[in-house]
User: Fold these one by one.
Assistant:
Number 1:
Amino acid sequence: INQQTQVKLSDGMPVPVNTLTFDGKPVALAGSYPKNTPDALEAHMKMLLEKECSCLVVLTSEDQMQAKQLPPYFRGSYTFGEVHTNSQKVSSANQGEAIDQYNMQLSCGEKRYTIPVLHVKNWPDHQPLPSTNQLEYLADIVKNSNQNGAPGRSSSDKHLPMIHCLGGVGRTGTMAAALVLKDNPHSNLEQVRADFRDSRNNRMLEDASQFVQLKAMQAQMLMTTAS
């Protein structure tokens, strides 16, 4: 984890999350799946609340969550230390029920915040999504939740989407790069990859098949804008 871009809570405690930037501008917060300990989950929730993340995007498939016994912290009601959560499912009618949407209410003392959650259930580790259209569709949803009350481009680590998969490099990097393309389809993806690696670690966007899908999404977008 790059300590230069590591996110810190208001009390100064660092969390295992980085701010991904491209061309000097913040794109998203990126991390690995929070550890299944009360402290780690409390810190994760505090970060979502304090940074007023525009949305939470969980790219870990249901199978992988079960296999690795990962906590389904974004659905249901929990108390993690000082933070209380209450998550309501909004819909799962998207893309053949591959995406569940929730609204998660967070409260900590006097602070309250509701964050939209997207859980993408059909994205295998180290592989692309089943279709390029789904990647673009996802980027659209994330971008739209950005505009609902949060600026799409913030100059700090606040009001950004928080994205994680399992390790926070492949699927997470791909999703964040898709957001960059939505902002500007002419963006240089090699430069996006290099900037993300500077922001987090050298493994960002390391899976070739995922990078190929980003290139396909870019080509599709440029064809649409040209026609």
Note: Residues 17 and 31 are 4 Å apart (CA to CA).
Number 2:
Amino acid sequence: MKYDNIYVGFSFWLADKEHGNIVSPEMWALLLSIEKNRSISSAAKEMKISYRKAWDMIRNCETALGFQLFVKTRGGKDGGITTLSPDGEALMHAYYNLIEKLEPAFEQYIVSFKRTLKGKKL
């Protein structure tokens, strides 16, 4: 049927005029993975990116935001751990809430868009 193969994609990110993208979909995935794994190295492996790229992404994000996202504890018997800083936790909580509210609204608009394309009344 006409238009059946058309879909609308969307993503969210935080940006500013000076630094550009601050929290891109890739950065958001990295933040979630670090929070889950408590390790930058494990998160990088999970995302199939280099450890250096993960660190560069974190540093660029922290520079743009002006605060540390994580508290890192080195070594020890079980290795180091990485946890969210209070500012990092606040950012993740706020961003997650934003996405949770926006995604359903966007999905409704997409349904409306497709219905309009197919000539159906809203």
Note: DSSP finds four helices and four strands in the chain.
